[in-house]
Every structure is written in C-alpha cells, then in structure tokens.
Amino acid sequence: MSLLDALRHRLRPLLRRHEFDREMDHEFRHHVGLQEQELTGTDDDPGARARAHFGSPAYYMEETRRMTPLRWLDPLAQDLRYGWRDLRRSPGFTLVAVLSLAIGIGANSAIFGLLYSLLLQPLPVSHPEQLVEIQHVGPDIPNDLFSYDEYRSLRQSAGFTGIGARAGTGSVPVVVGENRDYLDIDAVDGTFFSTVGVSPLHGRLITPDDENRRAAVVVISDKVWAALFNRAPAAIGGTITMHGNAFTVIGIVPESYQGLSSPEVFQAAVPMSALALVGGDPVETSGANSESLQVIGRIAGRRPAPGHGLTLLSIAHGIPSSKFDIPALFGRVLIELMGGAAIVLLAACANLGTLLLARGMARERDVAVRLSLGASRRRLVTQMLVESALLAIIGTLAGLVLADWALKLIAHRLPQEFSPIVSRFGLHINGQLLGFTAAISVASVLLFGVVPAWRATRTDLIAPLKEGSQLSRARRAGWLDRSLVVAQIVIALVLLNGAGLFVATLRNLRNVSGGFATTRSVSANLDARGTPYESSGLIAQADRLLARAALVPGVRSEAISALVPVYGGRRIGGAIDVEGYAPTPGESMAGWINPVTPGFFSTLGIPLRAGRDFSANDQGAGQQVAVVNEAFVHRYLRARNPIGAIVRSVGGTDTILREIVGVVGDARYLNLRQPAEAMIYVPLAQFGQIPQLGQIPKLDITVRTASDDRGVPAELRSAVLAETPDLRVDQPETMEATMNDALGRETSTAVLAALFGAVALILAAIGLYGVVSYRVARRVREIGVRMALGAAGGEVVWMVLREAVMLVLAGVIVGAPLAVGGSRAIGAELYGLAGESAFFIVGASVLLLCVAVAASAVPARRAAAVDPLVALRGE
Length: 875
Fold this sequence. Notes:
single chain, 875 residues, alpha+beta, seven-stranded mixed sheet, 29 helices, 22 strands
C-alpha cells in the first residue's frame, strides 16, 4: 500500500463518515453474531450475553475516529454546526456583533491599505531595498542633479553593483498614425533599467549599445501601449514620431512600474544620447542641462562611501518629491488615523465582549447541565471560541467590503493634484492588506472571545440548576462587563475629543485669510511643454492671452503669473541680495520670485500697501522694478523705507538690480498653515528679457469676474484654446475650489476622525444598552420586591439610569487624562487650538452622558412597568 493510500485509509472515518459508520456497524454486528453462535446452547440468552461482551458500538466508533491523525476535525465540524445554528437563532445579537466587527476591522483595513500604499509599499522592481540615489550634500535642500562628467566619474566608484542615470525632458508631442498626444519622456543611459531592476513586459529595454549608437529607439509604458497601439503585438518594431523624428518601439514595461518618483508617472524612455532628437540639450554640453542627471545606484552588500560631499539616499519606496513629499504630507496623519482605527477596533471588541458576557450568563443553566453530564471545560471553551471565530470570519468579510468601498471613496475624494499618486500606488485590496486583516481578525477573536468563554464555564454547578436562584445571583457585582463598558466610554471620549480637535482645525483653516480673494476668481494652468510655444517662450503669448480672456463674458480683470497662491510652484530666482541688509552667519537667503503681469494684485485681491502696482510701461528696456510683500519688508527692510530699495538675485542668471516700487499684502503660497514667505514680484515682461528664464514652460492665467463665476471656467478655457490652439490648458478652477483642494488632507482627516468618534459613540451606546438591559432582566424579581414594598416607578427608573450615569462618570474620570495625552500627540496636526482641549473633553463628556441616558431609557421604562405579582409569582 502506498503512502497516499495509507493516508486516505486513515482519514476515511472523517472524510466518509456515513460510509465508515455503516461499515463499522456491519462489522460490529458480524462479531456479535459470531459470539452469539459460540454461546448458543451454553447460555439462556446468547444475544444479550454477546452484546454485553462487546459493549456499545458507539464507543468503538469514537475510539476509531480518535486514532486518526486529524481527529480534531470532527469535533470542530460539530462546533461549527452548533455555532452556526446558535447564531441563526439570535439574529439581533448576530447582526450587532457582525456590524461592530465589520466597522472595526473595515476601518483598520482601509487605513492600513492607505498607509501601505503611500508609505510602506516598495517599488515593484527586483530587490528595491538595494536601490539608492546619489545626492550632493548642501546647506539647504539636498541637490540630486549631476553633470555628465560627474556621472562618468561616479561610474568608477567601487561598491556598486550597478549605476544608472536619467534626465527628464518634459512633455514631447508624439504621433502614431492618426493618434496624437503628449508624452513625458525620460532620457536614460544604457544601464538604467538593469540597475533599477525592471524587466520588460514585451520586447527589450534600452542597453549600452543603444546609447553608444545614439539609436532612435523608445521604451513605452503599458498605458501608452494601450492608448496609442491598442495593445497590438505589432507595436514592437512600430514607429512613434516624437519632435518630428521617428523612433522605433523596442519594449514595453509592465503596468506595475510607474517610475521612481511621484507624482510623475513613467510614460516613455529614450537613450540619453538621443536626447537632442526629442528637443532636449545634449547632456554632455555645459549649457542649461550641465547638471540635469539623477544618478541611481544598486548595492548588494555594505554601503559604499560615495565620495566627499556626496550621500546615499535609500529609495526602496521611491524618490521623494520636493513638492509632493508623501511621508511629509501623509505620514504623521496616517499613523494617527491608524491609531484611531485601532482604538475603534478595541471599542468593537469591548462591545462584543460585553454582549458575549451577557450571553454567557444567560446560558449558565445550559453550561451547568452539560458540565454535570461530563462535558469538559476545555471542550465548552473551544465550542464558544469557535462561535466567536464564526463571528470574526463573517465580520472580517464584511469589513473587507467596507474597506474596499472606503479605499475607492478616498481615492475619489483626494484632491486632483494627488491623482498621479493614486495612479502610481493604487488604492485597492492586496495581499498585504489581506494578511493584515487576517491578523487583526485573529487578534479580535482573542480579545473578545477568550474571557467570556472562560468565565462562562467557571460556573457553580448547583446554583444555576436551582429554581428561583436568579434573585441571589443578580446581586453579584458584574465587574467585568461593567469594566468593558467603562473601557468603551474611555475609548469614545478619546476619539470624540480627537474628532472635535480635527474638525475645529479644519474650521480654523477655512477661516484663515490666505491674503487673496477666493470668491469670483478663476485660475487655469497653461503648459507649453512639447508645444510650438515652448521654444518661442510662453511669456511672448501673454498679451494675446490676456486680450482674449478679457472678452469672456463676466470677466472684470485678468492677469498671468508664474505662481498662484496656496499651491505655489517651483522656487524661481534662488538666493537674493538686499542692499543694506547683512545676513547672519548660516542664514539662508533663498527667496521667492513671482513674475506677474500688471493687474495681478487687483485680480487676486492682494491689497497694495504702499507705492504702486506694475504698469504697461514696465518693459524690458525700462527701469527694472519689483514689488515686495510685507513679509519681505519685515525681514529685510524693517527700519527702512522699502520704496526705492534695491534687490537682486545672486548665483543665478537674473542678476539685474531691481528697484522696489511697491509693497503688497502677504499671500500664502506654500499652504495655509505657514506664514507667508518673503516674496518678490517682478513684471513678466521684464522677466522675459532673460533668455533662460523667458522660456518658462508653465504659467497661470487668472480672471476676476463681476458676479457669479460658475460659468467662467469653461468659457475661459475655450478662449485660451481659440488664441493658442496647441497649448495644453488644464481645466480652469475657481480659487474657492483651489482652497478646498489645498485643505483636502485636513478635510479627509476631519471626516475620518468624525466617523471614528461617531462609531465609538454608537458602540458605547450599544454596550450600555446591552449591559443595562441584561441587568434589568436579571433583576426583575428584585424590582418586583421593591415595588411590592412601595417603591414608585420613578425611583425604579432612577435606579436604572443611575447605574448608567455612574458608568459614564467612571469612564470620563479614567479617559480625561488619556484624552489630554491624545491631544498632545496630535498637536502637530492641529491649528489655532492652543489650550482648547479641555472644552472638547467637557463637550464629549456631556454628549456621552446624554447617550447613556438615551441608551438606558428603554430598559428603565421596562423596569418601571414590571408587575410585582407577575415578578414574584416565580418565587
């Protein structure tokens, strides 16, 4: 007999139980019959003697099953059937239990899915933990751009198993047959993809031979393959015309690879040596692209020393973006929300523990009978844990549905600026999320199932079997179930306090004046990358665009700028020098420069404090002028008259001396939390006279309307495209909508915190109702005695309500210090709430008292309606 046949034979009692029982019964009867034949003639009743000799057939069957390797499956199956029938007999309890668990597990799974996708998910490449980015070490922001000569030197460094480089060329117009589009092109060296660890989905990737031959080849993403070639296999070897030059498609990268940094999404790559064919400057030159290469390394062992003035940055999770620094934007708040979700799960488990304790007390008589008949405590505890596991399985499945729905909602509700992040990481159920959910499901069973099961079996076998013993047992102090209710009150208090603080923070930020008008203003981004306007300079189109925008019905004023408030943009100008100001040692003199057209301040609603605005006379040939904000004056010109002061940029190309002719109010360009930066406004026409800066690829056009601005965005976009049909124009957006997008993170946090608080409040109410109802039911005879002795209905109601109020007060006393600690823990995420935590704690306490009274009202009325004769009849 083979090993498999032997195993199948050993498992037959479990896998084919009915067939096994029939065979065992037949064999038993056969042996009894043989024994009966032997006893025939020697005994008066040979059949009875034979049966007595062998004993019960059920005993032999049970012993045979116990000899199987997986004998525990049989009682497990029995427990599952019993637990399922028991849950079906109590639909109310089952529904509350499943919903409680689903909310707790769903909240944790959703927040973990978001946390994993944005912070913990490694790059989908081979051994991402070995990837590093080489950076310069500087006094300010680390510089990760190298010249081609520096890159060639780095390739000689020891300790790296691979080094590759890339240079972003921006957006390039592409043509495939009748399809026209714009693609963001990466110029990479021949070792880039092998260093990163990307394998092609189809075809091959760029090699050193392609780089050496300056081959006009291109690698495209899976999405570009679908958009331009409809996923046709013939795409490999096909042609894409970019910047007027034909490139051969040699490979397609998998959909999982979205590049190394966000919010950029990988679309296509060409050899670095072919950069000039797509309109870029050769990286070997010393011109504008002299320092344009990002250098990526792979290390397999000990981290090498990259050289003096250099450092290595681990990029296992991607290269951080200066504007969309995901850990900075989401890290702390996601960890805080994860803590809130864990507290919600604890509240759900405490709620279930309370319900199971009450359920266990109601089943004392049944447990006592089974123990009296010989059942072991271990067997009963196992059966109750199986019932808890069934609840956890159903709750987990429901929680996963809620988590998937929540992730889709979060992805939909994120501001438009973060859509590339969603596209890059994807917010969906994955293997890691399933593993996390399974882990917390097991933890939930242990949290809410073990103690009630253990307590239910530690019962006196005599008292539950006595008639009328409930009166004496009801007087016991149910310290455990009441402790769980107090724990739920504590959790609800902490979460309600946090929800109040986050909602108040959102309110305060919405009330913050950004220094500009948010009503009746519409802004649109103009992108010249890859268009005919890129080479001639977008600034040259400004006057035409403004004239066309002025024709839009309802537009009262219009302006163009390089930066707009709230979202700002890249820093232009670098370090500055202010005449008469001596910086302190180590002081950063980095400044913001915003080129704008005349009328920008009135269009944006930025007030003019002193001097004058720009005019049409401020052209390139005239006096170079500037307008500064109050933050600039406060920092550099505090004791001087700012009008007439001189400021210039240093270390860059804009070295022209500029005379300050005006001072305007502060507008917040970074975000609403931080005070305004020192800002220098310069005329766009004068800025355009500098060749390198005059070709700004992106500008913003803003219009101010006379009244309602709802119909202006579509008409503004049509007007711009009518004047410059090849220009890439984002959908115009009102400044009010821009403000809402800027507060997207705070809004999402406040909504989630409020949901957590509401869930904790509901769970606390359910727990209070369950405990009070159970205790009222257990004390019916006691209440009957009290009423028979003259107690009024109001006294009985107060007796019930008093217990609920005392539980809430105990929870408040324990929870208030924890709420204060929680307020301090999330202090970095709050705004304008110094010293206001006590207000929200008191408010949450009052709300919990109201909920306690409401949850206890029905049991209290039921207690007051007890008929003493009916209650005492059982005695």
